[in-house]
């Protein structure tokens, strides 16, 4: 099984994208619902590409296993581009947490008096405060590393030659 994956870069990359996307979302949900880390607006925004990549990665895996190599390669290029965007978004968020640049006003805790009552009673989770750091990196910082690594694998799967031996 492992040899089949390594001999078929589009299949290996598709499986990798699916597994990493699934792990990213499951981890985020565990930290939110089990460990009670409340995500900010940017955290929720960073989840959207991962949700898409779960189903897209599974779809690419299916087509790669059926030999639809050309379509899968184009799909992996798209996944790689999405992941580069995810890397940029995560880097922007990490920079906000490190106070390198300001974040969006919606994450700053400032509220408008013209807003509706539910907006005034809702707790704002600030984007510029990392709730926890592991090995010096926040969740956004780890997302930079994971997104970039997964983008590299997706681009590899889209461009690497298949070993047909």
Task: Provide structural commentary.
- With 165 residues, the chain is mainly alpha-helical.
- The protein has one domain: DsbB-like (Bromodomain-like).
- The chain has six helices and no strands.
- The longest helix has 29 residues, at 69-97.
- It is elongated.
- 36% of the residues are buried.
- The mean pLDDT is 90.
Number of domains: 1
Mean of pLDDT: 90
What would you report as the Rg, rounded to the nearest angstrom?
Answer: 19 Å
- Rounded to the nearest angstrom, the distance between the terminal CA atoms is 15 Å
The proportion of residues in beta strands is under 5%
Content-based structural category? mainly alpha
Please estimate the helix content. Answer: 55-70%
**What is the CATH C level class, in words?**
Mainly Alpha
Which terms summarize this structure?
Bromodomain-like; elongated; mainly alpha; 67% helix; 165 residues
How would you summarize this macromolecular structure in one to three sentences?
The protein is mainly α and 165 residues long.
Note the topology.
Elements: H1 2-7, H2 9-33, H3 41-65, H4 69-97, H5 117-121, H6 139-159
